[in-house]
């Protein structure tokens, strides 16, 4: 599947939330959307999911225009799973098992189909069957978020939008959740769209990054192009570079030498920095 926005604008009352957006989301990739608060990230995601209409421009799926009326936009929804920011606020059933079964029951799945799917999904999000009979309010923040994610994965979306999934989680919880998302995405050529303020997370996992600023799409880049070669764009948009890349820049300045990198993953950056560090003192030829 290919999702394309062509010259799309969205307005809330008098405020332009998205202005003349062009972007292409291709299947099988991890695409991150970054930008400061109010940049238009969630609005862009709602357009992709078909939740809000575009006032100008066109939304196409596999080169076919998506109808602008509510009925046409409804057809987009099943194939795209959307985990909202703070999804735990949307857990409303009395037990986790009932929560996970809710949407499949609406689609008239049999009980055994539901049980089979729950058994498949729980380990994918790092939950054990022990949580099934617990009430959502008995779970930790991280567990609630995983239950919310599991309830969306139950319906087999091929595209998953996750809006700030790591907000409020500690570093271990963040890494664990993102690793589960990566495993999910890498199976079956799936597409994951991560909305995030955390450039560290984005640098670690993305195939492509969409940078937004004040309703404008600044560009869609691979991580090395944006975080290394065009890092001034991030600074202009008020975003702070990951610490590993700040360190890379500092070492380049100290040694007066450009360090070539082909990945923005923290471990790959350190693998390039350390040999130079061990070899010589700064500016000591
Ligand atoms: N329902 C709405 N009615 C009016 N204005 C809105 C509405 N939703 C969003 N906006 C405005 O549109 C702009 C873009 O909002 P959006 O939520 O898309 O930004 P964002 O980048 O996702 O921000 P955040 O990182 O804080 O979630 C903001 O100025 C916001 O105040």
UniProtKB/TrEMBL annotation:
Mode of membrane association: Peripheral membrane protein
Main location: membrane
Record-level Gene Ontology MF annotations: ATP binding
CDD domains (UniProt xref): ABC_cobalt_CbiO_domain1 (cd03225)
Xref: SMART domains: AAA
Residues annotated as domain ABC transporter: 3-239
Keywords: ATP-binding, Cell membrane, Membrane, Nucleotide-binding, Translocase, Transport
Compartments, as annotated in UniProt: Cell membrane
Superkingdom to which the source organism belongs: Bacteria
Name of a matching Pfam family: ABC_tran
Family in the record: Belongs to the ABC transporter superfamily.
Name the UniProt record assigns to this protein: ATP-binding cassette domain-containing protein
Lineage: Bacteria, Bacillati, Bacillota, Bacilli, Bacillales
